[in-house]
Amino acid sequence: MTAPTAALVELAVAHGVATEYWNWQGEHVIVSSEVVADVLAALGVDASTPDRAALALAEHQEARWRRTLPATVVMREGWTPWFAVHLPHGSTAEVWVDLEDGGQRRDIPQQDHWVEPEWVDGVQVGEATFQLPGDLPLGYHRLCARIGTNPEISVSTLIVTPRKLEPEKLHRTWGWVLQLYSVRSRRSWGIGDLHDLGDLAAWSAHDLGAGFVLVNPLHAAELAGRMEPSPYLPASRRFNNPIYLRIEDIDEYGDLAPAERDRVRTLALQARVLSEDVTALDRDTVWAAKREALQLLFRVQPSIGRIAEYGAYCDRESQGLIDFATWAAIADVHGPEWSKWPEELQDPTASAVVAFRNENPDAVEFHCWLQWQLDEQLARTQARAKSAGMSLGVVHDLAVGVHPDGADAWALQNVLAPNIHVGAPPDAFNQQGQDWSQPPWRPNALAETGYAAWRDLVRAVMRHGGGLRIDHILGMFRLWWVTSPERPTEGTYVRYDHEALIGILVLEAQRSGVTVIGEDLGTVEPWVRDYLTERGILGTSVLWFERDANGKPLAPERWRELCLATVTTHDLPPTAGYLAGDHVELRNRLGLLTRPVAEELAVDEADRDAWLAALRERHLLSDTDGDVERIVEALHQYVAHTPSKLVGVALTDAVGERRTQNQPGTTDEYPNWRIPLGGPDGEPVLVEDLPNNHRLRRLIGALNI
């Protein structure tokens, strides 16, 4: 490993690439020049040799002088920012704003601010400074400039965002945190679906007073070949997974011919048998059955009203839907990994792709139709939750990124970094680092495109919910870019324009009436949480991680008010399993520990003992009470005693499940994301069983929220 030169450091800093950082143990780490050069290459910057790095730096410094307007300007309402217009020295500029609603603003005054002109490509270029007014309306506008008498107009994106959301106005409430696929019923097809979610939400609101239900990401997975089990490694984040459809809830089900309806009923009976298995979910078998049924429904002639509604959905989703459906249709023929497709199909804009779409219109239409059905059932689910009394209803979850061979990675190649994976550096719980296998956004490309892909994504995931959890929201500030998939420690941080990404998030949330929750666990720069609070975004507090400056359990009154507070998280076992040390035993068995198991067990036991002592100190647990169910209740009471606006209860804790859903650092070494909901007796727990589950009712009663 060689340390980066001063010139390479300057180039890296100019592109937001870290050349040094502090790790989780407080050690100062210098990033190797090889890693820095690889990351810059993914940003389109050649720094492979000192000479090329010097040339790239000079080009970067001149780039802003070559463009008339900034690529994108993001401002908060009430701000009056300055921006630069570059033009031939001595020329004049006319500047105005075309508003999103069709209006126009021309009160964009030039400021008396002298900037020395620069010679660029043999032309002396000047810089004129203008100021935007503070009363521009919220939204996405066009910033326009005309230089002198030149008829050509330069245009960039202007985004005006709210100062903040207002989570202070939320009424304190509790809700479920669950993995939907694991929550099955006697009528679902071997996997939890949107009807199950609606049933659970309505019952929980009416009978238990729940205010929300937070679900795993429902993002689209590959539908050809083996379906990726992780909801956090989707094919697309903008679109959804049709495995969650309740077949019988589709309007056209009632119009099936008798023979076809009998076939669907047979498929349903075969799939429902899977709900009796508590060992592992079988997504591929479930999807094969559902796909056959959905293809029968797709061929039903809809009413003219349904045709119109479908057309409106397609119009709204536009080219993004067409690209997604095209990817899915090609995957049905050539497999889900687009990097292995014929070369002429690997570019979504290629003529061969257009030809495929024209030659296979029904195949593409089928996948558009599936997304419309999901849109309808998602809307119905949220409506059921709200009408039953939930204040928020469904809280959706946004994954960090996408599968490198998925639909988004294919369709959005212009804004994603090639040959790079998102991950995480080593920390206390994942001491070998993590490679999440996802291509990151290229921050420079996002700005060049006006953040269009991010805007479309955020708008889509907020459409049918009352809240949105952002997994690893720290990624909007900086992301760990892994350059060597075999070694997640080989990487560095890349900065993002958080004012733009968070601003757009806040704008879309205000328009949708959505509460935003940022998962801000892990290695966090102190100012980041302050910034998120300033923008009205709730944080996340997990009991096991909440410590004071001395490493002791944080007193409940000192927890954050503006956050979602829980006892556990999906990357740890349910609380009963955690109390038994299952996570240490599992990591040891899988070879994920970096210190002797005896030492790890001792540290883990001391940690649990500290929390048990805190419970007893608060009189939430007696000195003689060692019953696991009672300890789980006491831990949840501890969280309920915090001022946190939202208190989340893992459904697994309520029914006594102890198996973890996910073990970071593994793929198939453990059945991640395939554990169906079960009880302490090893029997499946179905939605219909919940109202009579005494363990569940005692836990919720203990919350007293």
TrEMBL record:
Record keywords, A-Z: Carbohydrate metabolism, Glycosyltransferase, Transferase
Record-linked Pfam families: Glyco_hydro_77, MalQ_N
MF GO annotations: 4-alpha-glucanotransferase activity
Reaction equation(s) it catalyzes: Transfers a segment of a (1->4)-alpha-D-glucan to a new position in an acceptor, which may be glucose or a (1->4)-alpha-D-glucan
Enzyme Commission number, as recorded: 2.4.1.25
BP GO terms, sorted: carbohydrate metabolic process
InterPro entries (alphabetical): GH, Glyco_hydro_77, MalQ_N
MalQ N-terminal beta-sandwich domain boundaries: 69-162
Primary enzyme class: transferase
Family (UniProt): Belongs to the disproportionating enzyme family.
Name of this chain's protein: 4-alpha-glucanotransferase
